[in-house]
Amino acid sequence: MNRTAVEPSPRLLPKTIKTLFEPGQIMAAQVPKELCRQTLGMINIDPLQTGGRLPRQSREVLLEWADGYSVCDFCAGRLDEISNPPISAFVHGDLPKFIGMDEARVTNGARESKFAVMHSMTKPGDTIVVDANAHYSTYVAAERAGLKVALVPNSGSPGYLIDPEGYAAAIEKDKPALAVLTWPDGSYGNLTDARAVSRICAEYQVPLLLNGAYAVGRMPVNGSDVGCAFLAGSGHKSMASSGPVGVLGVAKEFAGRVLRRSERFKNKEVELLGCTARGATVMTMIASFPHVAARVRNWEDEVSKARWFSACMEELGIVQLGQKPHNHDLLFLEAEPLFEISKKAKDGRYFLYKELKARRIHGIKPGLTKHFKLSTYGVSREDLKLVIEAFQDILRAN
Q1: Strand duo 127-131 + 103-107: pairing
Q2: Are residues 70 and 141 located together in one domain of the fold?
Q3: Shared-domain flag, residues 222 and 131
Q4: Is 259 found in the same domain as 327?
Q5: Total-model pTM
Q6: What is the 3 state secondary structure string of 13-67?
Q7: Is the confidence at residue 11, as pLDDT, over 60?
Q8: Same domain for 290 and 304?
Q9: Which residue among 4, 67, 211, 231 is least packed, with the fewest CB closer than 10 Å?
Q10: Residue 222, CB-side half-sphere exposure with 13 Å CA sphere
Q11: Per residue in 20-69, pLDDT tens?
Q12: 21, 10 in Cβ contact below 8 A?
């Protein structure tokens, strides 16, 4: 179906849009430079993006369902009950089986999954126990729900490890309504012994929420085997989906509470505000699912590759912090030699970003030299060798 370009009146266009488009060019094939993604074609080692890259078939689906609320054309009242396209089969069949939970829902991101659990399982003024490596959105979700946060400390540099026994101490002291474990954490990529934390929480009858934003879709995850009551995942970080989109897994004993329905609108789930991800986000997640389900079986290779890359970087004097041997693709590096170079470099602390960009490498945030994160997930060893060689060249040249 060919679409005819629409020529809106210039006065109806927001000022920011008028600077990018002339009337009649809204549907033009040529995308303005200001809206182009400058990092396409680069070697991408950004932890936020390596697990979210769409396979080819999902990019085609993205175009098919790009318009607004597209899937709502087929909705009789419940998004997750749409049978064609096969959203219902995915949400109530493939997804809970994949994550090992009794119930599953697609949400607008892992943070919304966490908030739905916190809001439904607690009351304002309650305390939740959280690991010290938790993502900021865990704290924000707790604050939004009116909760107090008690921390399980990490071990500090260089490992920043979470001792499962720390949950026992925190639970005994603070009597929480809920416990949260970030698995792995988004700073160091540490994989705490989640089963041990789950056993401790079960002993104290405290439900455990596992934040698997960097796990679900990257590595094998089975919430029932771990023993968690709730599991949050990220589609755009780790399930090759167009974001923002996430997943929520719920054990059956808590499903009636977290997935309760509105008294006024009987088919709408309150914590999900009736409907969540719709259109391109949920459809790309479904389209990518066979790809994602297959790639998690290669997790041991991904870990081996991350360890190899880490060892090569350490030969250059760039030290990996966090768990060793490392068990995840997300790496936190301390680069004292690069930091020293930044003190005298023309571009100062931005020199590393510019040097890597010149070599077609993307993923390390501008301005970072002493400490930075990267991910080897889905990046070939050949490309990672080019990254290592780039760091070698930068160190030698400076």
Answers
A1: unpaired
A2: yes
A3: yes
A4: no
A5: 0.90
A6: CCHHHHCCCCCCCCCCCCCCHHHCCCCCCCEECCCCCCCCCCCHHHHHHHHHCCC
A7: no
A8: no
A9: 4
A10: 3
A11: 434 444 444 566 777 677 677 899 999 999 999 999 999 999 999 998 87
A12: no
